[in-house]
Amino acid sequence: MLRQMDAYLEGLVSAEQFAFYQAVCDFADKEIAPHLLAWERQQQLLPEETIAAMAALGLFGLTVEEQYGGQGGGLLELVLMGLALGYHSQSVAITPGAAVSLGIKPLQLCGRPEQKAAHLPELAAGKRMFAFGLSEPGRGSDAANPETTATRIDGGWRLRGEKCWTTNARWASHIIVHALTNPEGRHGHRSTCFIVPMSHPGVHYREMHGKTVWQQSSTGAIAFEDVEVPDEAVLGTVHEGFKVMVTTLNGGRLFIAALALASLAFALDACRTYVQERIQFAGLPIGRFQRVQDVLLDMDIALQQGLTWLLHLVKQYDAGTLPRESAAKVKIECSRRASELLPLAMEICGGVACLDEFGLARHCRDLFVCRVGEGSNFALKTMATRPLVPRIAALLQ
Question: What is the average pLDDT across 211-238?
Fold first, then answer.
């Protein structure tokens, strides 16, 4: 059975973009889907040879300028990749997704020419990977006030602190560290971003074990023990690190929305196949029941609406006209709607939906990350509401 998502995407993107999406789908069908269950049962992170295969396909250089060896695409291509890979597994899709939207994008937005020349060619080729160091043990939604500090020394900075929930930590060659540099500064102007090699003395990484979501994705804690870096390590402007992070997260939130829709697309296809094959009561398929049809139709409507809205905003992002609140709203709604519908999808399939080989439980579980990743939905609702109540928002500045 053809994927329902494909019918909607074909009318929303160009023929060339749709052909790219189909090529990534073919790759995922052949290189990801046959191995996914074994990786999960063995509690195995995404194998490095699979990451290398994605690099050979050009997935790490999708948005990198051609002068640096990339594909020269935009966020639209990245989102299409997320839909194609995320259909089977969000935790597979987030590996190149975070490497590009959270690792490469800050360098593209805020890097100096010499920093771009030093890093982008190998990042585009998948030979190097940047991680995004934002979350901390004591800081989640309050990202403007990191506990990790960077203090001035002769010719540079000394970093102390710890980052956690860092995606791609195991494979990262460098981490972009968001650190407090001006405690007395006004809100949003207290921090600075630094590019720090993972091999630097004083940088200590450990994988965060016991995670039950995004099981093939590396999630690490990274400590900085008196790590000294030169002024050349600063990414962007001193004391303007929060701007780097906020600008980066707009695109990341659109990618997370794509992962939520990819899970919804998988559930819709799995269910519509199952309800036509599952025979009960008078030898007829269960898909004839109105309550079953209601769930299928609700999933279909949510998928079509979500894709149309998301791709409209992605095109705005690539044009540089996307409001920050719009990225938050589509991420909130796509993750919320998919999370509401996946348990119903499991329910109409019954006990078989609990089996790992059926796939629905994986997507239902991983949707939790879509609700809390790239800013929790609760925190994003507060931010997205501000334009609706400007006088109240002004009081909170």
Answer: 96
For residue 307, how many other CB atoms are within 10 A of its CB? 24
**pTM (2 d.p.):** 0.95
Stretch 122-136: mean pLDDT: 95
Domain spanning 130-239: which CATH class is it, in words?
Answer: mainly beta
* Average pLDDT of every residue of the chain: 94
Domain with CATH 2.40.110.10 in the chain: 130-239
Amino acid at the residue 118 = A
Chain segment 310-369, per-residue pLDDT in tens: 999 999 999 999 999 999 999 999 999 999 999 999 999 999 999 999 999 999 999 999
Note the CATH number of domain 243-392. Answer: 1.20.140.10
Where in the chain do CATH 1.20.140.10 domains reside?
A: 243-392
Q: Residues for the chain: how many in total? A: 397
Q: Where in the chain is the domain with CATH 1.10.540.10?
A: 4-124
Give me the residue label for tokens 């540099």.
Answer: 181
Strands 219-230 and 234-235: unpaired
Q: Is 374 a catalytic residue?
A: yes
| pLDDT of 145 | 84
Tokens (6 digits) for 11: 């009318």
Q: How far is CA 113 from CA 35, 178, 235, in A?
A: 41, 21, 11
**What are the tens digits of pLDDT across the range 358-374?**
999 999 999 999 999 98
Share of the chain above pLDDT 70, in %: 98
- Phi, psi angle pair for 45, to nearest 5°: -70, 165
Which one from 77, 136, 333, 374 is the annotated catalytic residue?
A: 374
CATH topology for 4-124 is Butyryl-Coa Dehydrogenase, subunit A; domain 1 (1.10.540)
